[in-house]
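re: ur msg from earlier - yeah i can do the inosinic acid complex, just paste it... oh wait u already did. ok heres what im feeding in:
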Amino acid sequence: MKNRILFATGNHGKMKEIKMIFSDMDVELLSLEDAGIEIDIEENGASFEENAILKAKAIAAIRNEVVLADDSGLVIDALNGEPGIFSARYMGENTSYHIKNNNLMQRLDEKNEKDRTAHFVCAIAAVFPNGEVAVTRGSMDGVIAREEAGENGFGYDPIFYLPEYNCTAAQLSADQKNRISHRGKALIEMKKVLVEKLI
Ligand code: IMP
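and the outut:
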């Protein structure tokens, strides 16, 4: 029988990405919606890893299946790692990213290029039915731009400038971004863990 894997997300974009990356594996991937699970998990961990693990454990506690969960965010060096694990909640969950992005650029106004470095970080946790836990991490390095650019992607993408590509993350196609993104890298590492554990 195919291994079933639950991915603790309600986000269709993330589901599409994980399905693409796992497409050559003989597994059935289900979102929380697919599995008929409705749950509100408080993300009160102190790191991306802790938050990913607590989300995966909360689902594993109600379903005896392999559960994956992720947590991600933007880390800006000159702001002591802000917004970090609070990226979604920064300035309030309902504040537009146009406002959040402009606020961050304003806070970095005086900083020159070398002090505008930032990273997107993603942790993926897996919890197995025997209680074993595995975590992987991926990151993507960039620089906070001086103005928003690009229409693709979401969140902080329009101000995340990638010097190697000479554009922001919002100016990459979805495929290009998946290939180099923090989430893409963490998922590829997690795929290696699953290949080992599930066979
Ligand atoms: P979560 O991992 O779904 O909780 O997302 C955390 C937050 O980090 C998102 O709401 C965005 O604000 C930010 N974030 C994470 N990954 C990205 C990305 O690839 N682009 C832009 N923003 C991101």
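cool cool. Residues 3-198 form a domain with the Maf protein fold (CATH 3.90.950.10). ping me if u need the other ligands too
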